[in-house]
Amino acid sequence: MKLKHFLFLMCFLLAGEFAVNAQQKTLVINTKTTVAPIQSTMWGLFFEDINFAADGGIYAELVKNRSFEFYKPLMGWKKTGEEYAGQFQIVNSQNENNPRFLRIESLQGKDLGLVNEGFRGMGVSSGENYFFSLMARQDQGALALKVELVDSTGMVIGASEVKNFTGKWNKYETKLACSATHPKASLRLTFSGKGVIEIDMVSLFPEHTWKGRKNGLRADLVQKLADLKPGFLRFPGGCIVEGHELETRYQWKKTVGDVNDRKLIVNRWNTEFSYRNAPDYFQSYGLGFYEYFLLSEDIGAAPLPILNCGMACEFNTSELVPLDKLDPYIQDILDLIEFANGATTTKWGKLRADMGHPAPFNLKMVGVGNEQWGTQYVDRLKIFLKVLNEKHPEITFVGGAGPYSDGQDFEYLWSQMRELNVKMVDEHYYKSPDWFLKNAGRYDNYDRKGPKVFAGEYAAHDKEGKDAESRNTWKSALAEAALMTGLERNADVVYMASYAPLFGNIKAWQWRPDLIWFDNLKSAATPNYYVQKMFSTNAGTDVVTALVDGKPLIGQDSLYASAVVDSKTSELVVKMVNVAKKPVSLTLSLDGKQPSSQEMNLQVVASQNLGAFNQVGKPEEIAPIEKKQKISGKKIIVNLDACSLTVARIPLKK
Ligand code: AHR
Q1: Same domain membership, residue 340 and residue 300
Q2: Does residue 338 contact residue 392 with C-beta atoms inside 8 Å?
Q3: Pocket of ligand 1 (CB under 6 A)
Q4: Residues 135-162 pLDDT 10s
Q5: Residues 6+ apart with CB under 8 A from 146
Q6: Residue 350's domain spans which residues?
Q7: pLDDT, tens digit (0-9, with 9 covering 90-100), for 508-526
Q8: Is the domain of 200 the same as that of 275?
Q9: Is residue 143 part of a domain?
C-alpha cells in the first residue's frame, strides 16, 4: 500500500472512530439502586380562568351573561321585535349576589324577544339535546315563550317552548333536540301574547357533559385532562387569585352553594392586555371551588387550591391588606380546609355534603399567595403560616418564589422560604426554548435539605405567529422535554411540576402559548401537551441514575436523558431527548437488573420542522407514535430521531 493510501485509510478509520464516539454515547443506568421516589404528584395541571378557560371553555354553559350582571347588563344579548312594541327594563332588585333581572313588558300583543350570542357563538351538535332553563315571574297577563337554536344563516335547528308562567319566581325548564352541527349558533327567545314577565339566569347546556353531570363541564376538554393522568390540579390560578385589586381577588366562598347565588365578578384578564381586550370576560363561578374539587377527584389529581394572602397583583395595583387585618384571609383558608375535609357536622363540611359530596375531598396542600414578591409577601406569609401550621400540621402550605426564575427577588424569597421552613416553594418560568435547554441541569445543585420545589408555572415561549396556536411549536415542546428530564432526575427535590396556562380559546385568548387549544366544538392537543403526556403517563415510581462518563446527560451532543423504574410494572423507563437536527444512536447499558423480555416499547415524537404546531380542526402535525424494538443482552441501542423525544419502556427481571 502506498503511503498516501495508508494515510487516507488511517484518517478515515480515525474519523469513523471519532464519529462513533461522538454519536454512540453509552448511558449507564443503575437498575439496582434507586435514588428517590417519584412523588405521585410529580406531573400535574395548572388551571386558571384565563383565555376563556372556564366560562366559554370547560364550563359547558352556552349563554353568555345569563344573569344580566355584566357591567353592561345586556352585553351578549340583542333585543328582537318591533320598535315600541314593548319595553325591556333592567331591574336592580338589591339582592346582594344576583341583583339584576330583565323585565319585559309586552302590552300590545306583538312578539318580543332576545337573542343570546353565546361565547363567540354557541357550538352545537346534531343529535345532541340541550337543556334550557330560566328563572321567571309573570307580573301581568299571560305570555308564552318560544325557545330556538338558530344557525348563523337564521335557520332554526332546535326548538321548544315554555308556557304557564306564574306570579312567583320559579325555575322553568325544557329540552331542545338539535338537528345540525354549527359552531356559531345563537339562542333566540320569543315571547308571544300580552303581559309582563321578569326573567333571570337564562341557561343552555348540552345534555352530554363530563360524566353526564347536569349543567356540568365540557366532556371533550375534561377527557384531555384525564388522559394526562395528572398528579395534581392547581386551581384557580394564577393571577386570578390575586385580582387586579383586592376587590376582584378570587374569593372561594362566593363560588360555592346554589349557582343562582354565586356573585358574578369581572375576570381580571378582561382588560389586562390592551392588544387582547375582552370586555365580555366575567366569572359566573358556575365552575367554582366545589366543581374544582370534584374535577380533581374525577381525574385522580390531588387538589391544590391557591388562596389570596392579602395582596392584590403586584404587577397591577399592589394593593395590600394591613398586617393586623389579615384574619379574614387566614380564616378563608381554615374554612376551606373544613369545606374540603371537615365532618359533615361542621358548617363548611355540611355545605360540601349538601352540595352532593359528604365524603371528604382529601385536601393535603394549599398555596398561600400566587406570584408575590418582596418583604410585603414574607411579612404576610409569616403571619399566615403561624396560624395555619399550628392548626393544620397535616397540610402542606406552599409558598412562592415570585414571578422570576432567578435574580435578587428570587434569591431573597428562597432564603426566606428556608428560614420559614416552608415545605414547598412555587417557582415560575416563562422563558425562551434556549433558556430551557440551558436550565436542564437547574436543580442538580439545589439544596437537598431545604424546601421542595413546585415548578408551578412554566412554558417555553417561542416566536409568535398569526394563528392562536402558533406559539406552541415543536421547538418549544422539545425544549420543555429537555428541562423535564432535569425535573425528573431531581425528583428528590422537585415534587411537583405543571405547564401553564392550561387552556386557550382560539377566538378569545389573552395569553399564549397554552397546553390545549379549543373552539366551541373541538380541541387540539399541542406538541407541549404530548410532551407532558409522555412524561406523566410514564412517571414511574423511583428515579435511578443514568450517566454518560459519570455525568448526567444534559446537552452533551445535544442529548438529554433521565430514567426511572416502575416498581408496579417492573419496568425501566428511559426518557431521551435529541435536540440535534440529525439522528443519533444511544447505547443503554443496564447495570443491575436486566431485561426480562426480548422486546421493549417505544413512544416517539419527532419532527425536523421545529416550527410545526397543531391546530384546532386540522390534522395533527406533531403527535407521538408507538413502536416495539427487539433487544438482547445488557446493552440496548436506541436510535433517536432528529429533534425527538423518545420514551423507552424496558421490562426488567425481578
Ligand atoms: O399563566 C399566566 C399567568 O402567568 C399567571 O396568571 C401568573 O401567575 C403568571 O404571571
Answers
A1: yes
A2: no
A3: 48, 50, 237-239, 370-371, 403, 428, 457, 500-501, 511
A4: 999 999 999 999 999 999 999 999 999 9
A5: 113, 159, 161, 188, 189, 190, 191, 192
A6: 47-56+234-387
A7: 999 999 999 999 999 999 9
A8: no
A9: yes
